[in-house]
Amino acid sequence: MIRVLLVDDDALVRAGLRLILGGAPDIDVLPGDPSDGAAGVAAAREHRPDVILMDIRMPGTDGIEATKMLVGKPDSPHVIVLTTFDSDDLIVQALRAGASGFLLKDTPPERLVAAVRSVVAGEPILSPSVTRQLVEKVTGGNTSGYAAARDRLSALTARELEVAELIGSGLSNADIARRLYMSVPTVKAHVSRVLTKLDADNRVQVAILVHDAQQG
């Protein structure tokens, strides 16, 4: 069973998430329903979830600070941040804090369940549509980083560059595997090398580099 903790200050959101996830046979939604980051951290340390669905905007300790407190320690949970389009800047901060990805609060139920399963399998979740909007917002149409981005991407092999460009399109590992006729483990190995060579912390940073490199 995948143990999931819900951290959100909106009781209706928590109830909806619990209803959706509770219907999956392999997911166990943990008790507590913490409504702020500090309570979420305490609940995580008590219940040791595999995945936390974490709201970003909460009173007191927000989702970013809570993620920093939880991620990077032995057996730390995977954190998926929940957001709306108006909090794009905070998404970047959350990913830098170690979140495994982000979802919109109106994500269809089947994708929400799939996202929980994917992060447990080691695949970060980045919605293609949100990734594109996020990259556009972060770069602001600025082309000044073109040369630097192209220089960093030149460290990749031809195949790694293909993988990086598909990451930039918001594709999952499974989608990349189908597109490039590879196995998922092979794609994961390429993604790991891309992150290492580009000194990137997450897939969004790769997407931003790809975006910058294409603006010249």
TrEMBL record:
Q: Which InterPro entries match?
A: CheY-like_superfamily, NreC/VraR/RcsB-like_REC, Sig_transdc_resp-reg_C-effctor, Sig_transdc_resp-reg_receiver, Tscrpt_reg_LuxR_C, WalR-like
Provide the HTH luxR-type domain boundaries.
149-214
What is a GO molecular function of this protein? DNA binding
Which SUPFAM superfamilies does its entry note? C-terminal effector domain of the bipartite response regulators, CheY-like
Which superkingdom is the protein from? Bacteria
Point out residues bearing the modification 4-aspartylphosphate. D55
State the Gene Ontology BP annotations: phosphorelay signal transduction system; regulation of DNA-templated transcription
What keywords are assigned to this protein? DNA-binding, Phosphoprotein, Transcription, Transcription regulation
Pfam families given in the database record: GerE, Response_reg
Concerning Gene3D superfamilies, the annotation shows: 3.40.50.2300
Domain (Response regulatory) spans 3-120
Name of the protein: DNA-binding response regulator
